[in-house]
């Protein structure tokens, strides 16, 4: 017998044809703790995702906002617990997502440069990034090229600044140490002693 969650997140039990109902029930009882844990994880993962639709939910700086489409001159505006988004010509998830992601990018461009400068002062040298870029990335929080260009994932704006600062510190260390070796982690420890806690939060909240 196999117990799993289907593509919609619903519990699914697969059993051989000769399996009795009593055997299936015993199997479910034996694995109920595992099932409850998986359902909680599924719920938390779903709650962390942005829902690009009217009355959907969008995260910004660690807070969950209700997304409302409105007829407005402003593209996006924050009002209490609501994210007011200008109604696109084509009211679909892809268009709404594009508006939100572009807004994330603009918010990053306004707030992140000063945070990079502040964190970079904790290093004892005068090395600075060649430039900083912001874009949506599928499988990376950020990266640092060999030429000194730091790129940050705009979707980090779903998390709080403490977590974003960790990613910044991580990439500033790569500006000085290419590999994840002893020197790299020594530098990271010196500029951000609680980086492990922040890294754990990043895994859970991104």
Describe the structure.
- The mean pLDDT is 91.
- It is built from six helices and nine strands; from the N terminus they run ββααββββαβββααα.
- 44% of the residues lie in helices and 21% in strands.
- It has helices at residues 21-30, 32-48, 93-120, 161-174, 182-191, 195-205; strands spanning 2-5, 11-14, 56-60, 63-70, 76-79, 82-86, 131-135, 142-144, 149-153.
- Helix 3 packs across helix 4 (161-174) and helix 4 crosses helix 6 (195-205).
- The protein has three domains: 2-47, no CATH class; 56-100, no CATH class; 108-205, Metalloproteases ("zincins"), catalytic domain (Zincin-like).
- Strands 3-4-6-5 form a four-stranded mixed beta sheet, covered by helices on one side. It has a three-stranded mixed beta sheet with strand order 7-9-8, covered by helices on one side. A two-stranded antiparallel sheet has the order 1-2.
- It has 206 residues and is an alpha/beta fold.
Q: How would you describe this structure in keywords?
A:
206 residues; alpha/beta; Zincin-like; 3 domains; 4-stranded mixed β-sheet; 6 helices; 9 strands
Please specify the SSE layout and strand pairing:
Blueprint: E1 2-5, E2 11-14, H1 21-30, H2 32-48, E3 56-60, E4 63-70, E5 76-79, E6 82-86, H3 93-120, E7 131-135, E8 142-144, E9 149-153, H4 161-174, H5 182-191, H6 195-205
Q: In short, what is this structure?
A:
The protein has 206 residues and is of the alpha/beta class.
- What is the highest CATH level, the class of the largest domain? Alpha Beta
Helix content: 40-55%
* Strand content range: 15-25%
The major pleated sheet works out as: 4 strands, mixed
Q: What is the H-and-E element order?
A: EEHHEEEEHEEEHHH
Terminus-to-terminus distance: 34 Å
What strand line-up does the widest sheet have? 3-4-6-5
Low-confidence stretches: none
């Amino acid at each position: 017998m196999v117990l799993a969650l289907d593509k919609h997140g619903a519990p699914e039990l697969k059993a051989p044809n000769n399996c009795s109902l009593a055997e299936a029930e015993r199997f479910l009882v034996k694995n109920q703790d595992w099932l409850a844990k998986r359902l909680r994880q599924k719920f938390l993962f779903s709650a962390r995702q942005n829902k690009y639709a009217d009355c959907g939910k969008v995260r910004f700086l660690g807070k969950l906002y209700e997304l409302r489409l409105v007829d407005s001159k402003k593209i996006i505006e924050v009002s209490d617990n609501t994210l007011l988004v200008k109604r696109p010509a084509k009211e679909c998830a892809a268009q709404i997502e594009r508006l939100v992601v572009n807004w994330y990018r603009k918010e990053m461009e306004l707030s992140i440069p000063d945070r990079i400068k502040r964190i970079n002062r904790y290093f004892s040298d005068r090395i600075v990034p060649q430039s900083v870029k912001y874009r949506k990335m599928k499988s990376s929080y950020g990266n640092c090229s060999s030429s000194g260009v730091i790129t940050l994932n705009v979707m980090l704006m779903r998390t709080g600044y403490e977590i974003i600062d960790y990613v910044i510190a991580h990439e500033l260390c790569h500006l000085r140490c290419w590999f994840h070796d002893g020197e790299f982690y020594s530098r990271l420890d010196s500029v951000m002693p609680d980086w492990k806690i922040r890294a754990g939060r990043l895994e859970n909240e991104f």
